[in-house]
Design goal:
This protein is α/β, with parallel strands linked by helices and about 300 residues long. Helices cover about 40% and strands about 15% of the residues. The strands form 3 sheets. A 4-stranded parallel beta sheet has the order 2-1-10-7. It has a 4-stranded parallel beta sheet with strand order 3-4-5-6, with helices on one face. Strands 8-9 form a two-stranded antiparallel sheet.
Length: about 300
């Protein structure tokens, strides 16, 4: 059995807010809505069984809340009975050619607002706004998206900016993590580990979301090889799963999202390996399509069951 600071029932497992989109019940932006509108979404999260959430900024941009609105946000969380073990950003890359400086400033604000909420980790990524082809696709990963500039100058600047965020986080007593995502500086497992070394800061780890890779209609590494490379650096973990089928005769690949227990990634083995390697971070349950929040709730129960077999 694994020694852990958490019990199986107490390990932080957060709900992703992606299924709720960015609109309130009247069709306005949920970010600007009354606290009761936030509470409507959060009560459902709590009813499904979660005690933690990650308010990804596609839902509410915590980094842009005024002091008064942040106080309202804290009150709603307390009233509903939810806490935040980590906050993720989405499509706000500090290397965005048009909005990079704006997103860097936002990232710094988010670290400070997260600190005010007592949140110990913030997840950043280099993935950017959807292309027109991705907007039209049934699943956005079926179309080509953003590709990071791999020139030495751009790569060096990217590492420098993330190091800047890591230094800020460390001064707040926090950590940051980088979400692995195709065609970015952390777009392969080898590339992610190498980029982490280029950053060279103890307050920066990896978010080993290899689900982002196995859903792609392109060749991938064996899942176990991916896990072996990145789990030693994990400090926050977005978890989701996909079925994947490959036709060796034609090279055709088919993938679609499924509950964690049914997909290509064996999360029972992966979580056991991660804990053996020292992972003590939170999990974030994600899912795309169908009744996503219900599937996310089932994923939470699945993880709890796995943890119960691993923790003394």
């Amino acid at each position: 059995m694994i020694s852990s600071p958490y019990t199986a029932e107490g390990w932080p497992i957060a709900a992703a807010m992606l299924p709720f989109g960015n609109k309130d019940s009247r069709g306005g932006p949920i970010h600007d809505a009354e606290p009761e509108e936030w509470a409507k979404h959060l009560r459902l999260v709590r009813r499904i069984g979660f005690t933690e959430l990650d308010p990804t900024d596609t839902w509410v941009r915590v980094g842009d809340l005024s002091p008064e609105r942040l106080s309202d946000f804290k009150s709603v969380l307390s009233d509903v009975g939810l806490t935040i073990p980590a906050i993720s950003t989405s499509r706000r890359s500090v290397m965005d050619p048009e909005h990079g400086e704006e997103y860097l400033a936002y990232s710094h604000r988010l670290l400070d607002k997260a600190a005010e909420l007592g949140v110990p980790i913030v997840s950043f990524g280099f993935f950017q706004a959807f292309s027109e082809e991705q907007e039209r696709a049934l699943w956005f990963w079926l179309a080509d998206g953003w590709h990071d500039d791999e020139s030495p100058e751009a790569r060096s600047r990217a590492a420098s900016l993330i190091r800047e965020l890591a230094e800020h986080a460390a001064s707040n007593g926090q950590q940051i993590t980088l979400e692995m995502y195709e065609d970015t500086y952390v777009g392969t497992c080898d590339g992610a580990v190498q980029f982490l070394k280029e950053i060279g800061h103890d307050a920066c780890g990896l978010n080993p979301d290899i689900g982002n890779f196995i859903r792609l209609h392109r060749p991938i590494e064996p899942v176990q090889d991916m896990l072996d490379k990145v789990l030693p650096y994990a400090n926050y973990w977005h978890v989701k799963n996909y079925l994947r089928d490959e036709d060796p005769a034609t090279g055709q690949v088919m993938t679609f999202p499924v509950p964690m227990e049914f997909g290509l990634i064996n999360y029972r083995a992966a979580i056991s390996q991660a804990l053996d390697l020292g992972f003590r971070g939170a999990f974030l349950c994600e899912h795309y399509g169908s009744d996503a929040i219900t599937v996310i709730g089932k994923n939470r129960s699945y993880i709890r069951d796995i943890l119960a077999t691993l923790i003394d």
